[in-house]
Amino acid sequence: MGGEHFCFTDKPLSIERAYTLTAAPASGAVVTMVGTVRASTGGRAVAFLDYEAFEPMALDVFAQIARQIRERWPATGNIVIHHRLGRLMVGEASVIIAVGNAHRADAFAACQYAIDTLKLDAPIWKKEHWADGDSDWVVGLAVLTEPST
């Protein structure tokens, strides 16, 4: 059984730190996923994003994800979920997930499970600010368009 490290921060995320927290002698693989702010969504140019979260509940969701990973992939070692909050510019990392496992296929599957489940279940919201000055809240897979003022 491994350990977990979950956090929210308004500081830049570090893939090196996530790897260091995840790597362990029992892990034959460490798979890391870095979500970044892309330059466009749906053909619209992105200026920046703002992330908000209900942190206590989101951290509980992260812990639940880790428990589910350990049940499904028992050879899992350490698990890291780090998420940015606040304003992020194009190219910045918004989330880093790292999973150590004795087997690479299980590490890949667990890492994908973690990001997919986080996006569906964690109370984390992003507001996309478009280059044209408009903005939209993204909730789960839905986009809520704000009226122009």
From TrEMBL:
GO terms for molecular function: molybdopterin synthase activity. GO terms for biological process: Mo-molybdopterin cofactor biosynthetic process. One of its GO terms (cellular component) is cytosol. It comes from the Bacteria. SUPFAM superfamilies: Molybdopterin synthase subunit MoaE (SSF54690). Gene3D superfamilies: Molybdopterin biosynthesis MoaE subunit. It catalyses: 2 [molybdopterin-synthase sulfur-carrier protein]-C-terminal-Gly-aminoethanethioate + cyclic pyranopterin phosphate + H2O = molybdopterin + 2 [molybdopterin-synthase sulfur-carrier protein]-C-terminal Gly-Gly + 2 H(+). Pfam families: MoaE (PF02391). Its EC number is 2.8.1.12. Transmembrane segments: none annotated. Keywords: Molybdenum cofactor biosynthesis, Transferase. Pathway: Cofactor biosynthesis; molybdopterin biosynthesis. InterPro entries: MoaE_sf (IPR036563), Mopterin_biosynth_MoaE (IPR003448). The keyword Disulfide bond does not apply. Belongs to the MoaE family. Heterotetramer of 2 MoaD subunits and 2 MoaE subunits. Also stable as homodimer. The enzyme changes between these two forms during catalysis. PANTHER family: MOLYBDOPTERIN SYNTHASE RELATED. This is Molybdopterin synthase catalytic subunit.
